Amino acid sequence: MATADRKEREKEQRKNAIIDAAEKLFFSRSFDSVPMEEIAKEVELGKGTLYLYFKNKDALFFAITLRKMRKMHEILVECIELEISGREKHRLIGKKYFEFVQENQEYYRMICAIGPKLFRKKENEDMKAVMEQIKEDLLLNRDVLKEGMEDGTIRNDIDPFEMAFIMNLMCNSIICLDPNWKKILEIGGISYDQFVKDFLLFIGNALDNRPVSDEMGLGNSAR
């Protein structure tokens, strides 16, 4: 039994070493320019051995993606477990998410460059695992929004799942913002970092639970 456990650990270590090597090469160059042979050489494996772990580069892309997503998932869970309001949890999640993006810029550059093409390919088991993680995190975000609705800190006139879905789409669009749009922002004197901060402020104000009179700009005059 001990031998079987040791072999399983060694297999997992080798698999992680392959992912590390692929990540290093994809980030330093580009996904399309790195052949499987070079990844095998980086980890001192034969090409045939490499294919025992990953059948192609697409599988490696999804393995890298899933590993990063699971790290972000851990951060998400830490925020959810705090004894604060639903609104504060959601505010913290947004802050931590964009901090994670900033700390993993090479990864997100790869995601924005090659992700759309790979996700359009015929569905496979590797992509299914990533999609399941996306679904799980989306449901967790929904639950945070629902919690805020129940404790009165988040508006309750929109379905929480729909709200979570909308914000997920918006965040993905901002992360993969076309460089030409960034240049247009700069023409207006707004840096990308400032744009992200303002987005979080904007979306936060949109989520806050406020009386209808305040949302209409009526204030005390409606009384």
CATH architect. name of the largest domain: Orthogonal Bundle
Number of strands: 0
Examine the coordinates and then state which fold CATH places here, giving the name of the CATH topology of the largest domain. Tetracycline Repressor, domain 2
Q: How do the helices and strands follow one another from N- to C-terminus?
A: HHHHHHHHHHH
Beta strand % = under 5%
Whole-number count of domains: 2
Condensed summary:
This protein has eleven helices and no strands. The chain has 223 residues and is mainly α. It has two domains: 8-54, Arc Repressor Mutant, subunit A (Orthogonal Bundle); 57-207, Tetracycline Repressor, domain 2 (Orthogonal Bundle).
What does this structure look like?
GO terms for molecular function: DNA-binding transcription factor activity; transcription cis-regulatory region binding. It comes from Methanosarcina acetivorans. Residues 35-54 bind DNA. The chain is mainly α. The chain has 2 domains: 8-54, Orthogonal Bundle (Arc Repressor Mutant, subunit A), CATH 1.10.10; 57-207, Tetracycline Repressor, domain 2 (Orthogonal Bundle), CATH 1.10.357.10. Helices cover 76% and strands 0% of the residues. It is built from 11 helices and no strands. It has helices spanning 2-28, 36-42, 47-53, 57-80, 86-103, 105-119, 125-151, 160-175, 179-187, 192-207, 212-215. Helix 1 (2-28) packs across helix 6 (105-119) and helix 4 (57-80) packs antiparallel against helix 5. The longest helix has 27 residues, at 2-28. It is globular and about 60 Å long. The N and C termini lie far apart (75 Å). Mean pLDDT is 91; it is low at 213-223.
